[in-house]
Amino acid sequence: MSESELQRALARRLGEHAEECGECRAAPLPLGELSRVLARQVVVVDAVGLSRRVAAALRPELARLASVWFWRRFGRGVLAALLPLPAIVALDAWLLSFVHEWAAAWLPEALVTYLVVSYGALLVLLFAATYAAIPLALAREAWGRSVARLEATA
Ligand SMILES: [Zn+2]
To answer: In terms of domains, do 80 and 147 share one?
Structure first.
């Protein structure tokens, strides 16, 4: 229903009321004047400024919630990644000791020890890099999700 249709419907209902009501018939309301005065009023809403103020007011709470979400996910991710670690370390230690024993039969003991310890150090470095990548992967996932949400609303 458009604005003028609404005004006509209201005027019709008021007219019907005025026909039945003696008080309104004796002293009719200046409806035309009131309508003109109300139509001239313009409510200025600064939507951009309002949005900016609301966003500024919400920013600390959003940051707090994002931080809580991130650390919860981070804890779960690290825990899930740590669970198989003892088995992996035990398997690697067993394999390296087996390789050490096997290679020591043909190569000098010092060289074999050097190679096995170097390979072990490389494995430790790879483990450390993997665990260090967990927060980066989570941040990247959260970033991708927020971009997808922005694209969906745009
Ligand atoms: Zn009346």
So the answer is: yes
Ion ligand 1: residues, Cβ under 5 Å: 21, 23-24
DSSP letter, residue 105: T
- 138 and 76 share one domain: yes
| 63 within a domain of the structure (yes/no) | no
Please name the residues in contact with 74: beta carbons below 8 A apart, sequence gap of 6 or more. 134, 135, 138
CA 28 / ligand 1 centre spacing (Å):
9
> Separation of 12 CA from ligand 1 center, angstroms?
14
- In which domain, by residue range, is 130 found? 70-153
Does 80 share its domain with 123?
Answer: yes
pTM of the predicted model as reported, rounded to 2 decimal places: 0.47
| 21 Cα–ligand 1 center, Å | 5
pLDDT tens string 79-105: 888 898 899 889 999 999 999 999 989
- Whether the CB-CB separation of 96 and 120 falls below 8 Å is answered with yes
Going from the Cα of 33 to the center of ligand 1, the distance in angstroms, rounded, reads 18
Whether 47 is in a domain gets the answer no
Q: 17 Cβ partners below 8 Å, 6+ apart?
A: 24
